[in-house]
Amino acid sequence: MTDPRDERALALDRAHVFHSWSAQAAPSPVVVAGGQGSRVWDHSGHSYLDFSSQMVNVNIGHQHPAVIEAIRGQASRLVTIAPSTANLTRGEAAARIVAHAPEGMSKVFFTNGGADAIENAIRLARLHTGRDKVLSRYRSYHGNTGAAIVATGDWRRIPNEFARGHVHFFGPYLYRSEFWATTPEEESARALHHLERVVQAEGPSGIAAILLESLPGTAGILVQPPGYLAGVREICDRYGILLILDEVMSGFGRTGKWFAFEGHDTRPDLIAFAKGVNSGYVPVGGVIISDEIAATFDERVFPGGLTYSGHPLAAASIVATLDAMASEGIVDNARRIGEDVLGPALAGLADRHEAIGEVRGEGVFWALELVADRTTREPLPAATIGALKQGLIAAGLLPFTAENRIHVVPPCVVTDAEVAEAIDIYDTVFGSLL
Fold first, then answer.
1. Beta strand 47-50 with 34-36: parallel, antiparallel or unpaired?
2. Distance between CA atoms of 249 and 409, rounded to whole angstroms?
3. Crossing angle, helix 88-98 and helix 312-327, to 10 degrees?
4. Which of 96, 109, 163, 341 is 20 to 30 A from 119 via CA?
């Protein structure tokens, strides 16, 4: 039986809500009325495993009690305050964040979300270097604001190209290599050669920064091959260019590490973050700034700011989230799940379904690349992906789809049993529709 609140939610949505990245006549969205951990449900009691983590941001799971209580407690003391003031909760949040950053990165500029973080990282890089150009990958997504969307490499930048000074290059993606590579090592070396040639052709003296997702997410969960990030750092150092790493989607537990660049022998100059830092409980993002760049503005005014920068409710949610993730071993759980449970289960799924051309990922950050033919690697058409999405929802799982891929991205708190339940759903739906 359908609860009338679900019907009202859909009616109001259709009448008044304008959805992002959508044709407005698209199929009705799923109604979500509540959630806990890795599950959500509607008013009628239909439950779904959330293997999208909404927008790949609910890393700590839905309705974590410590985070809810921290927001409630902060609201009872002080709901909002100007960013120009000193606030203990804001300071504690910044301290918690930089505790996970590399040495020599001790300042945080808070923003309202990930796109704002990218905007301000680019601004900081340009002001610090006095240069203009920003290089980023074609297979990337950096946000839906002025410079962030033009830094994005995928189709979404094309109707939005109003910002200046952006250049794109191809990064490593062995499954669909632009470099005729046959091994991860070849792909890494050839992609680095290509990047350096782009730097040389564009004029190094005019390039402020290279902007990369540490592990490209919406672009396909493209795990970096050996030596690539370290090689980009070397190119930056050779030509006096800053390295901005976008950890908006990949940071704070998603890859089974606090930051996805850990273990890649590289230190960025600026780190953009959002999403997982507080699982999206309150809108927030930010930039972790190297001490050298921060010192540029000791006596010089930084020409940027936001009314809600370091909002107390957001700051409280960050403190509670990062403390809970540390005390409850949530990052370690994401790593273990990826290595011992989810990764092997997805590999088994690929063995059973010819349409899965490649499985790749780490932690709770995985992609199934779906193909019509494993030999030619022709992508499955959009209509088939749409049918799979609707089939998974009907079977009780919320998926994240992008182009010819299904991204398997549950919360970092997902359990072994929930992974097994999800694999059964993928198996059944793939078996019936592919």
1. unpaired
2. 11
3. 40
4. 96
Enumerate residues 6+ apart whose C-beta is below 8 A from 235. Answer: 192, 195, 196, 199, 210, 241
CA distance between the termini of the chain: 31
Tens digit of each residue's pLDDT (9 = 90 or more) over 204-217: 999 999 999 999 99
* DSSP letters spanning 358-416: EEEEETTEEEEEEEEETTTTEEPPHHHHHHHHHHHHHTTEE-EEETTEEEE---TT--H
Containing 111, the helix (H) or strand (E) segment is: strand 107-111
> How far apart (Å, rounded) are the C-alpha atoms in residues 434 and 421?
20
Alpha-carbon distance 369 to 353, whole Å? Answer: 12
Over the Cα atoms of the chain, what is R_g?
21
Query: How does pLDDT run across 376-390, given as a tens digit for each residue?
Result: 999 999 999 999 999
What is this structure's pTM?
Answer: 0.97
164-173 exposure pattern, b = at least 16 Cβ within 10 A, e = fewer: ebbbbbbbbb
* CB atoms inside a 10 Å sphere around CB 46: 17
> Position of tokens 């499985």?
359
Evaluate whether 56 touches 255 at the Cβ level (below 8 Å).
no
Q: What is the pLDDT of residue 159?
A: 87
Per the structure block, which two tokens stand in for 289? 């700034």
Query: Cα 7–10–16 angle (5° rounding)?
Result: 135
